[in-house]
Design the sequence.
């Protein structure tokens, strides 16, 4: 969380009312927020803006599934179209290419099936 004084009330509210662990950004690090803002933009545009939620559990499930997709199944241009946390079977070069889905087909990814 940003160290700006305008967030003091929010930090105190989170500390008192939730089990959320607050991690403050290091001092004098203005570019650090840009990475999280970009991630939230991806989350909102690829997932949250396309769904209707019926309570906190459905929202938490959607975010959990998106994080799994983002880290293990989605290619990232900034990493040379590589995955952040590839599974062990990503080095397979033989077999048919299969389509996988998350969140009812909203998030799709392609992987090579076993030969």
Sequence:
């Amino acid at each position: 969380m940003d160290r700006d004084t305008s967030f003091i009330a929010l930090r105190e509210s989170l500390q008192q009312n939730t089990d959320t662990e607050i991690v403050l950004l290091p001092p004098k690090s203005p570019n650090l927020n840009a990475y999280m803002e970009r991630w939230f933009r991806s989350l909102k545009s690829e997932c949250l803006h396309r769904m209707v939620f019926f309570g906190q559990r459905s929202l938490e499930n959607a975010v959990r599934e998106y994080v799994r997709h983002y880290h293990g199944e989605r290619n990232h241009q900034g990493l040379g179209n590589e995955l952040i946390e590839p599974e062990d079977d990503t080095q397979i070069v033989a077999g048919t290419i299969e389509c996988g889905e998350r969140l009812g087909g909203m998030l799709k990814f392609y992987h090579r099936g076993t030969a």
Observations:
- The chain has a mean pLDDT of 80.
- Residues 31-112 form one domain.
